[in-house]
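Next up, sample data.

:::
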Amino acid sequence: MPGALEAAEANARKAEERLRMALDTLPEGIVFLDAEGRYILWNKTYAEIYSGSSDLFKVGLKLEDTLRIGVARGNYPEAIGREEAWLAQRLSLLANPGVRHEQQLADGRWIMIEERRTPDGGSIGLRVDITELKTALQRADAAVAELNQTQAFLDTVIEGMPAILLVTDANTGRMLMLNRAGELAFGHSRAEVLGHGYDKLFGASEAETLCEQDRRLIATGECSGAQEISFEGGDGSMHLLSVRKMLIRDAAGAPQYVVSACDDITEQRENEQRIIHLAGHDSLTGLPNRVLFNDRLTRVLQRKGSASKVAVLCVDLDRFKTVNDTLGHPVGDGLLRIVADRLNDCVRQGDTVARLGGDEFAVIQNNVEEPADAAILAQRIIENLGRVFETDGHQLVIGASVGIALAPADGESADALLKNADMAMYRAKSEGRGAFRFFEPEMDARLQERRRLELDLRRALVAGEFELNYQPLLNVAEDRISGCEALVRWRHPTRGMVMPGEFIALAEDIGLIVPMGEWIIRQACSDAARLPPGMKMAVNLSPAQFQSPNLVPTVVQALAASGLEPERLELEITESVLLDNSVANLRVLHELRAIGVRI
């Protein structure tokens, strides 16, 4: 009997030693508390996580006492200034196991905490360092438990683990244990799977992969890296597991068990795919962005032979800035989504439509046998984008200008083709919009000239280089001059007199048309006040100016400053304003008429 008792005690010590060794292999911190919240056992990782308080860990010491000392040491920044409230909250979470929460340590690390009750009223605490997860999106690859402990206590630990743990016989490959997390994930009770092979839970190919991994582990004794395996979950959907394996040997050193620790990484992979998608796509329209566009174009150019051409079309929306500035970004965003849909409708399968930024889009047209193919597509785009758009209760007319560059004649690289198509597009805009142009080598010089003109135009308003000329208005019935129409001119210091056709469209493109229009109203009212009584002053309004929230205040201030009677001011608007019979436009018309201004 004494020999048997000594053997039993030795086995117990050995079992406890193996348990401690198994716990110390875990990447998670594990702590066991009794029903009074006193320390029973903890592993090395737990001590490392709480290194600022590890000197306090003693069997029988209450967790509450170590927390208080840790708070006093400043180990928990969340507790600073609210020490008692923080302690109460932390202890209440301990008293209500099963709820995960997070904790920040003084060194900046974040720890995920989960408590589980044991049958004797104590608890098992799990601590996972989730710092990387907090700072880098979905980089979680939670290390799974590698356990080697006595069977009775092993069940308690495993059932408290959130990861799937699966134990198979190293000799027969039959499953011997599946924890609660595994039951929930696979949709099978352990009674249904124990005694069966992997094919009870996995498809034939996946089951064979797992068996081969077991054979390699048993043969070499080395733990391989994580293996990703798919399976059909209890909810009927496909899931992805990250599987890590550990070999447990018996006292004689022979392989006995293979422990598979599994993490469901389905959501992580889906998030990674979403990130990859977002990296190459525009979040507003879902179209490829500039990066993916350039990549696809480069690939196309690398594989195309001389017998087939590729066209790049740059598409810029006309008057989009007016919509965005006057009706707001939500309306502009809705318009861009519809534009993306219409562009996709214009192209063939295999072509690429991308949003490069703002209101600029681009198209890769494959298998272009002759320039006419690209011209047909460009005209189709112009016609589709010229139709009325309906979004957010507004009817909008914008239009588009298209530039075309052909490979290899206009460039053999993605950058060169896109640059040349962009220049052709600016040429189309400068010639009246709503048109397409093919790239021509001399366009580079013209683009440089346009950029110089843009810089001069931005300076002109501040420098006072604009002036008004007045065209008489004849009343044919009475055979007399009834007023005049204000016509803006730009007296450039070196170019001389610049006519409106050379700068009005550019002013609209770069957002100067509204402040320029406000200056015209003020100056025209001031000049009209010096005309004979009854003489009217006509001023043209651009759509952007009419939709500007400053229009009515500008008119009121100009009339007041000049002393001009409101009925002598006549504002001319285009049909496109009337086509959009929005509430905002109607309100502006009523306000102007209420002032006495003629429309």
